[in-house]
């Protein structure tokens, strides 16, 4: 065979090798990216725990990356730049439908598992003169949440629950829940909204200055005002000591988090991850107590209108859970 023929054969082999490599990647991604909120968030911590379990028990190599918010995370799933994400139910619904903060629908989004519930508290310094909702008027309160649009909505829902409006307070712009509680710790704000008890930033603020959570209003009227802003939320009572930085009984806004994926993720990858969550609940909970709430009973319990990934439906059906009426 002449030199030109050899060159042609080598080119064909190279192309064939590339195509084969692409097909192997698309059918069985060895690298799984789990995307969450930034480092220091509850979602990031849960993502790290799940990734470690994936790396221990499957052939996949999982990594976790933190981003500013759902407006970045959801398009990454839509365009197959990530396999999984941990986001709240409202963000997931808006992302799928293309409403709220999203200009277009992300119809590749699929629900994999209902995860845990997360709390949002109202934080003040331990020695603050603010003792009740009425004392918040005229004070410096965190807001804007420029890199976390869902937190801006949650903060607005908290304000509605407290029967307050932004004109009643002085807004201190922050970027996310972490910088929200840091603003109180640094003396730049009197009240921090959208703070999840137990996150590292809250624990650090508690160690630095001491913090308190003001109880939200559990009344039917207050809950209605809150849900009018953030329908996916509820009000729950948490006792002192149930989370390290909760020092007294009080009511918190709560909402669900979901593990979501994409239609691009192969069925067997979904099955591998769900098997870990189903079979290793005890060990995951020992590593990260947030997983204590991520029970088998909760995994398939959802009123969200996002369709489940077909492999998730198959998985839960195999566990005796019928999805036909969902």
- Helix coverage percent: 40-55%
- What is the number of E strands? 10
Distance between the termini: 63 Å
Summed over residues and divided by their number, the pLDDT gives a mean of 89
Tell me, what is the CATH class of the largest domain? Alpha Beta
CATH architecture classification of the largest domain? 3-Layer(aba) Sandwich
Structural domains: how many: 2
User: C-alpha Rg, in Å?
Assistant: 22 Å
The CATH topology assignment of the largest domain is: D-Maltodextrin-Binding Protein, domain 2
Return the string of H and E elements.
HEHEHEHEEHEHEHEHEEHHHH
Structural class: alpha/beta
CATH superfamily of the largest domain: Periplasmic binding protein-like II
**Tally of helical runs:** 12
